[in-house]
């Protein structure tokens, strides 16, 4: 049986003081839920939040990772640097990185590999834009995004990874895929992996990442191939984030 996972993505929000307050609020409300939970915080807040989450069930993650191990890459943060702050997860290929900062399928695959070299679990974000969905390209887009990683790292690499399906048209728009729309794509992703390795497909956590909120999380998480969520805006409020977590 797969464990469920909820990951909060704070994006570029917060001050050190608000980050401390939010992390403490989440820790205080964890309760006895056995599902996995993590927060991906801005780089500059990793040291302090790393201290706060020690000896708790709340894991730490980064919002990106460099596609190189070290060198003259101004502004980048390497996987080795992240590992020093006990980052368990790192997002790679988030739609905002792909759309605004030019991350390509190839660079995302390299970031995926860099994370794994430091025993950091990459959370590979895949998904289609509204235009691509309307042109019935959803599955073709996801194939391409998954194949870039498979071609570089091999299917076995997914035994230590997470996939997050982000319908780009539902991020920050207030729109959410219906439970059935989300399940259809999650099922497709799992079947695509299964065609290459059934054992990995059975084990891998596939998260929904499109405007999940406390009022729709329960229905989404009840779907057989949805193993949790990558939560954006709702993760900036401890109460909302915990409601989503406890809806599993």
Automatic annotation (TrEMBL):
Known catalytic reactions: D-glyceraldehyde 3-phosphate = dihydroxyacetone phosphate
Gene Ontology cellular-component annotations: cytosol
EC numbers for this chain: 5.3.1.1
Keyword Signal (UniProt): no
Compartment(s) of residence: Cytoplasm
Molecular function as annotated in GO: triose-phosphate isomerase activity
Sorted UniProt keywords: Cytoplasm, Gluconeogenesis, Glycolysis, Isomerase
Main location: cytoplasm
Family: Belongs to the triosephosphate isomerase family.
Role according to the record: Involved in the gluconeogenesis. Catalyzes stereospecifically the conversion of dihydroxyacetone phosphate (DHAP) to D-glyceraldehyde-3-phosphate (G3P).
Oligomeric form and interacting partners: Homodimer.
Protein name: Triosephosphate isomerase
Lineage of the species this protein comes from: Bacteria, Pseudomonadati, Pseudomonadota, Gammaproteobacteria, Methylococcales
């Amino acid at each position: 049986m797969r464990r469920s996972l909820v990951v909060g993505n704070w994006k570029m929000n917060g001050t050190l003081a608000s980050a401390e307050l939010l992390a403490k609020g989440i820790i205080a409300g964890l309760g006895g839920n056995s599902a996995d939970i993590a927060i991906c915080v801005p780089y500059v807040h990793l040291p302090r939040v790393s201290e706060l989450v020690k000896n708790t069930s709340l894991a730490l993650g980064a919002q990106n990772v460099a596609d190189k191990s070290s060198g003259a890459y101004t502004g980048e943060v390497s996987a080795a640097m992240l590992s020093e702050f006990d980052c368990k997860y790192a997002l790679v290929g988030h739609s905002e990185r792909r759309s605004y900062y030019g991350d390509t399928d190839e660079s995302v695959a390299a970031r995926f590999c860099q994370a794994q070299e430091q025993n950091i679990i990459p959370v590979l974000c895949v998904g289609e834009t509204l235009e691509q969905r309307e042109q019935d390209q959803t599955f073709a887009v996801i194939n391409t995004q998954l194949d870039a990683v498979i071609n570089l790292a091999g299917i076995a690499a997914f035994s230590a990874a997470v996939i997050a399906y982000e319908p780009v048209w539902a991020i920050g728009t207030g729109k959410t895929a219906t439970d059935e729309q989300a399940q259809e794509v999650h099922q497709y992703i799992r079947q695509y992996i299964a065609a290459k390795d059934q054992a990995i497909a059975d084990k891998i956590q596939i998260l929904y990442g499109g405007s999940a909120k406390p009022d729709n999380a329960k229905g989404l998480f009840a779907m057989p191939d949805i193993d949790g969520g990558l939560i954006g805006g709702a993760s900036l409020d401890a109460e909302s984030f915990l409601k989503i977590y406890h809806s599993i």
